[in-house]
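Hey, can you fold this?
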Amino acid sequence: MEASAEELAVDIDGLVTEDDAPVDNLPSEKQQRLLTEPLYSSWYPQSPFLAAANVGLFYGVRRPPLVPDVFLSLNVEIAEDWWQKQNRSYFFWEFGKPPEVVIDIVSNTVGNERGIKLLTYAQMRVQFYAIYDPLQQLGGPVLEVFELSGLRYESRQSAWFEEVGLGLTLWQGTFEGREDTWLRWCDRDRQVIATGAERAEQQRQRAEQERQRAEQQRQRAERAEQEVDQERRRAEALAERLRQLGIDPDTI
């Protein structure tokens, strides 16, 4: 006898999905948005995706969740009734899969990113795990990327994720008025995925360039018209002078 949908439903009433903990520090908060907003502004994959910051990953009812700084999951969609408790967090049994990429931003040494988190994300079967340690508090590189191999992670040199169609790169520049080194998504050519503001600025610059080209063309056309008019006037003046000398200009 097959079980009913009610019998198969996971009881999550006792799970804590939001604990009202304080928000992250200012650098991490900006960095998180720089890793989520551009994907919705400027990335166009062939399938739906979910990019989120500070959202719990629940991979088992009796297992504590992890809350990464950022994650990216492909081929998933948020439920229409996303205010319902069973849809407010990333429950693996609801989405049917783990995220492809998880990113943690190190701001202190208590996060244990290279310890329990590394082991737990491997248990979750997250394919790629990136640790961004801008102050190198863990004693390793600024950016360290791991790929799942079997049941454990292996460190990798490349930060390009072929299966995802994205990579990670360190970028020196200004985001929301703050000049710094930032972790950003990039394409195969290491060109960063633009933010909405960057796209708007690029469009403004293109529009300004088009306006300038149109103005230059107008000025060239105006100068050409002036030159034609000057030639016409010189020809008329010469013809008049010839007539004064008794010469018919039409016979010349």
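Oh, and this one too while you're at it.
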Amino acid sequence: MPLATLGMFILWMGWFGFNGGSELKISDIGEANAVALVFVNTNAAAGGVISALFTAHLLFGKADLTMTLNGALAGLVAITAEPLTPTPLLATVIGAIAGILVVFAVISLDKLKIDDPVGAISVHGVVGIWGLIAVCFSNDEASLVAQLTGIATIFAFVFIASLITWSIIKAVMGVRVSQEEEYAGVDFSECGMEAYPEFTNSGK
């Protein structure tokens, strides 16, 4: 978990460059101010952290670090659809709603027995949809119909492209390891060593 937390903070730091760099220039005052606002709004991740933390605590009776980390990423994903036009307060609210959504999305996918161990579908899929819809709250040039069309287009492309790609991989080399390799750990079968020997019998 310490490594996962460190990874989240590294992503959070990199996201400033990702969103701010999308302005492409800071050579005039207007663009420099725009980049500054994008930087501030990117911290919508903070709203996601707090809301996911409290939501998980209400549901599970304790603070869940994995949900909190996903809450930060959810806030980042949600605001990335439009980090320039919201006010910082609205950006924080968008991030906070994303943090709540990601907790319920992770729980729902688990109940549906959809294999998503790191919550990628919840963070990038469910919250990504929320982020696109939230654009309508601050950008006058956006419309709900256009955003929903974009969501449908993205889903169709990703679904078809993924289906083709994974079908080819499955036919050529397979996509699952054997039960023995799964039990021993793919780190051992692929790399010849255990990633977490302290949690196995061989590490004692």
